[in-house]
Structure formats: C-alpha cells, structure tokens
Backbone:
C-alpha cells in the first residue's frame, strides 16, 4: 500500500460546551488523520463525541456555543481552529462536504431541490444560475435519481427518504470536495436503502477520489467501507487501527463488547442480543482513570487511578487499555482467543 | 386551486347568511326598544315603529331585511334622519381603511424587523431591546399609548398635530398607536419562529455548503419562519382595517370605530347588522387570503386535497 498524503490531521482535540448544568467536556483529546482517498470510520455510541469531533472539523457549531479547549485541526494548509469564519466559508462546501443523519429534516422544505444543490456551486465556483442548475441536474443523475430534470424542479417532500439522502449526497459533493463527512448517513434509513446509499458513496469515492469520514454507531456497515477505524468512548479515543486490525485483532475491551453486540446471523438460537452492561460516564465531570472502567469486566486497580495511555499493538494499531502494560495480568481476548500482548 | 376558492366562497356566503340571521334575532333579545322613551308621546312612538316596519311580525321583518340585503341595501339608520347604513359605512370606512393600512404596514415592517433582529442577536442587546418593546406593546393598552404620545409629541414638543385626519403628519401618531400592539405580536412570533428554524438540520446543511450567515438567513430562514406570521396576519388585518373605537376616538378620526359601540348603545338595529357584516366579510376574506398565502409560502401545503 503506497503512502498517501495526509489530508486532515486532528491532534489532541478537546471540545467543551457550556450548558445550564455546567461545562460538558464532549471531546477529551482525540487525534487521528485522514489520508487522501481514504475512508476513516469513527465509531462510538451516542454521546461519545464522534459527531462533535466531525463538526469541529468544519467548525459547524456556532462559535459562541462551543469552546475548542486544546489541540489543532489541520486541513491541507489551513489551521481550522485558528482561521476566521469567513475563511471557513471558503472551505465548507468547496473542500469539505457534509451529509447529515436524517434526510427528512436536512433539506430545506420550501426550496426546490435543484436550487439547493446549485447554491454551493454559485457560491464557490461562481457559476451563473442557469449553469449551476444544469450542473445540479448532472449531480442528481450522478447520485442515481431518475428523471433528474423534472426532479430538480421538485420540493424535498416529493422525494422518499432514500432519494432525499441521495440529494444530500449530491449537495455535499456538488463542488467536488476533497473530504466528505458523513454523519450517520444511513441511521435513519431502512436496511435495504442503507446498502444502496453506502454502495453509492463507495462508488462515488472511487470515481472522484474523495476522502470520507464515516461516523456511525454501527460496526456492521464499517467493515465494507472503511480502511481505518477509530473507536471513541466518552470523548476519548479508545482504539485506532486499520479495518482488519479492529475486526480481527481488536485490542480494547470496549471494542470487544461492540463486536460481540453485532447481531450474528448464525447465532439465531440465542434469545437475547449481546450488549455492554451499564451506561457511559457523565461528561460534566472529570473522569478519573479509564472512562470504561465501570463497565469493563477486566478492570484492575490501576484503571480507577490513572487513565491509560495508548499502547502500540501493531503498526498503526493502538488501544488505550492497561491490559497491554507489561505488568498486567494475562487476559484472553474473546474475539481472537489469544492472550493480550502489546507486540505480536 | 380555482375549485378550492370557489368552494371557499360558497362556504363564506353560507357563513355570512347564518351570521346575519343569528345577529338579527339576537339584537331583538336586547332589553328595550329603539323608540321606547318616556319623553316621547306614545302615539309618536307607534308612528316611528310603523315607519321603520318594527310593528310587523318578526319573520316578516326578517324576510324584508334579507330581501333588501340581497339587493345591497342595508336599510335606514334609526338614529339619523334619512341616512342609510350604506351611506354611513361608505362615508366612514375610507378613514378606517386608510388608518388600518398604515398601521398594518407599520406592524409588518417594524414587527418583522424587530423579530428578525432579536433572533439573529439572540440573548444580546438587540434581542433584549426588541423584546422590551414587544412587552410594552402587548401589555400597555392602546388608549394609554395614544394619549401618551399625543401629550409628548403634540402637546409638549409640538412637532405633530394632536388629532384629526387631515395632513400626512396627522396620520403618524394614530398609526403608531394603533399599530404598536401588532408590531409587538409580529415581533414575538417572528423571533420564536426564527429561533426554532435556526436549530433545524437544513440550516446546518446550508452552513455546510459554505453559505454566510446573511445568505442562510435570507435564503433559508426567512421563508420558513413566515408561516406563523401569515396565520396571525388574517385576523390582524380584519381588526386593523375595520376601525377601532378607542384610537379613532382619541384622535377624533371619523372612521367606523364609533359605530360599533354607538349602534349597540342606541339599539340602531340596521347599523348593528351593517357593522357586523362589514367585519365578518373582512374576516372571512382575510381567512381565504391566508389559506392561499400558506400554499405560496410552504409548498407542502396543498389547497386541494
């Protein structure tokens, strides 16, 4: 595999929100990078900070509602957290596109679909109205919407959920951005449509060479799509590695739990689906030690004292878990059935 | 669309028919009689009653009235000499209409402006400023506002005429006094609506396209926030344009307003019915108008099922 250029680098990102109940530390030191043409999946449960991280890359949350405490985000040559909103407007849509979760609410109900796609083109590529509409019809064709000419002159409520998500993709990709952030793009769709949308994203990525950050809580859809995976828990990165590493040699007990929670078709006799017991910690307070300790059956004394650092498990594969410390007791990895060792 | 409007118009006629019938009967239930006055000799009273046809059986009176109404004749006012209700309304209505339209424009322009400003500067100075004005506009009655601005601008500062409806300058104070309450409600509704819309996902989508705040507001927020405004605008137009007793009284404007109150106090039956008709026709037409505007603002709303 040849070394691709780094497109996006996120380093030690810390994000907080001020709420009536106090400061919520939503993201607590996250680092990852996205290479050109690569798909990175950010996986985690609700409230793990994955969407906040992704929106920070675009500075989408209004500046007065969010605090970037630490870290930096570098997209190409731009320090995203340092530039002005005016500078960001040149990046949003033009270089980074975004697809939101719910296609029923993510399109403007009172604006023609073609016009919604054309807006970005008029803004960034300075096309005139007629050209921009022509381009948006082409975009609709590209995302597989039949009768694109007529459909461009319709309103979102005349489209089905899956079709609307295709429109969202067309909007996000209209200016041919280098990075596409897909925030749970299939969560609101039914399973057959899910597969179609993912297939479409993969296909367009191949054609356009776009990098994708795929945010999801569904490990099942990740395996097909992503080259690299980061697993987030309580605002922290718990495991990072290639798709193969995470699926075949997962290192963190949380990842084990996630993998065990994916329903398996050959275990139909089981009555109850597997789950990870307990709930994630409250993000209002500082977390002492490992954030996963109270739900982890392998938790040790040290886990309550000190947060684990990232241990190298292999090339570019890390897990933040004390089990990989040299003094840790030997625990059997339930996925691989092998002993946990930091260097295999 | 045309079918819908025709249907609505038929329903409107039916509504007006029922309304007029009910009001016709109800005013007869009011205690007293227009000509029952101890100072007037009994014989004169009888003569007056028979002159206006009030001595005939009720159903006969009703049929006569309805028949005249169909021919556009609302009868003679009982309290003026030989003046028809039509004449009274035609003479007074233009004043009320003029004042109402001015107040309406003031309400919509200032109300939307303040509301949008408040929403864009949420929780900042301009938000508090706009909402303070809104609270004052809603809670202080118009007769206090009216007298107050009369005192300040006409009596003390002497920069505007104190009353009457003659020059352009004389329209400013009554327009302000009449419109302020509506400014306040439009501003509050617009602010709430815009703030709600700001949290919608499609605003995020618009931002992710790289649009500036101004473009997002103009292209995405405004149209979507207007629907609740359209809803209150219908009744508001009817109230403002058909005249108000208090404001017209304070500023000595010869509009329709005084007839609402006077006609009932003096039991001027035909005038009561005439005023009811003017107001209800206005209200019904405005409701129809609102329905049509709904469809224009929001394509999801279809007029025909």
Residues:
């Amino acid at each position: 595999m040849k070394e691709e250029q780094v497109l996006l680098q996120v380093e030690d990102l810390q994000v907080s929100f001020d709420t009536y109940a106090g400061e919520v530390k939503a993201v607590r030191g996250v680092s990852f990078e996205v290479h050109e043409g690569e798909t990175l999946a950010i996986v985690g449960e609700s409230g793990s900070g994955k969407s906040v991280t992704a929106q920070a890359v675009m500075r989408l949350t209004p500046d007065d509602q969010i605090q970037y405490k630490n870290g930096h985000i570098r997209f190409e040559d731009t320090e995203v957290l340092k530039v002005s909103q005016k500078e960001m407007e040149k990046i949003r849509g033009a270089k980074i596109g975004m697809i939101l979760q719910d296609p029923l609410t993510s399109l403007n109900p009172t604006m023609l679909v073609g016009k919604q796609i054309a807006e970005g083109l008029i803004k960034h590529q300075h096309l005139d109205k007629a050209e921009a509409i022509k381009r948006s019809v082409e975009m609709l064709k590209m995302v597989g919407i039949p009768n694109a000419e007529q459909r461009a002159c319709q309103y979102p409520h005349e489209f089905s959920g899956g079709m609307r998500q295709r429109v969202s993709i067309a909007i996000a990709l209209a200016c041919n951005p280098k990075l596409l952030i897909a925030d749970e793009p299939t969560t609101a769709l039914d399973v057959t449509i899910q597969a179609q949308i993912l297939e479409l994203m993969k296909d367009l990525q191949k054609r356009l060479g776009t990098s994708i950050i795929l945010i999801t809580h569904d490990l099942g859809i990740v395996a097909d799509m992503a080259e690299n995976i980061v697993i987030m828990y309580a605002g922290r990165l718990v495991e990072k590695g290639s798709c193969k590493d995470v699926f075949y040699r997962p290192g963190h007990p949380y990842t084990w739990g996630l993998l065990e929670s994916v329903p398996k078709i050959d275990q139909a006799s089981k009555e109850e689906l597997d789950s990870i017991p307990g709930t994630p910690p409250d993000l209002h307070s500082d977390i002492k030690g490992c954030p996963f300790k109270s739900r982890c059956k392998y938790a040790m004394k040290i886990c309550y004292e000190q947060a684990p650092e990232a241990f190298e498990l292999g090339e570019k594969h890390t897990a933040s878990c004390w089990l990989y410390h040299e003094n840790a007791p030997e625990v059997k990895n339930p996925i691989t059935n092998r002993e946990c060792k930091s260097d295999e | 669309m045309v079918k819908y409007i025709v249907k609505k118009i038929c329903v409107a006629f039916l509504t007006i028919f029922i309304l007029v019938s009910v009001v016709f009967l109800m005013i007869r239930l009011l205690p007293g009689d227009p000509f029952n006055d101890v100072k007037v000799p009994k014989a004169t009273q009888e003569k007056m009653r028979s002159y206006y046809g009030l001595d005939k059986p009720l159903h006969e009176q009703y049929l006569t009235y309805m028949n005249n109404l169909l021919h556009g004749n609302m009868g003679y006012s009982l309290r003026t000499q030989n003046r028809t209700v039509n004449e009274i309304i035609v003479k007074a209505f233009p004043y009320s209409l003029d004042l109402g339209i001015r107040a309406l424009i003031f309400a919509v322009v200032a109300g939307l402006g303040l509301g949008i400003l408040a929403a864009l500067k949420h929780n900042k100075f301009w938000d508090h400023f706009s909402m303070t004005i809104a609270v004052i506009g809603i809670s202080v009655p118009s007769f206090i506002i009216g007298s107050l601005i009369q005192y300040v601008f006409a009596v003390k500062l002497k920069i505007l005429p104190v009353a009457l409806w003659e020059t352009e300058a004389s329209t400013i104070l009554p327009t302000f006094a009449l419109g302020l309450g509506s400014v306040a409600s439009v501003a509050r509704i617009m602010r709430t609506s815009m703030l709600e819309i700001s949290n919608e996902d499609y605003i995020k989508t618009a931002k992710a396209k790289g649009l500036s705040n101004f473009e997002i507001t103009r292209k995405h927020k405004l149209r979507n926030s207007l629907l609740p405004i359209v809803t209150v605008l219908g009744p508001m137009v009817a109230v403002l344009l058909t005249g108000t007793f208090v404001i017209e009284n304070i500023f000595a404007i010869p509009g329709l307003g005084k007839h609402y109150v006077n006609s009932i106090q003096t039991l001027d039956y035909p005038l009561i019915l005439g005023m009811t008709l003017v107001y209800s026709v206005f209200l019904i037409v405005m409701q129809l108008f609102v329905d049509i505007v709904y469809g224009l603002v929001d394509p999801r709303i279809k007029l025909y099922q």
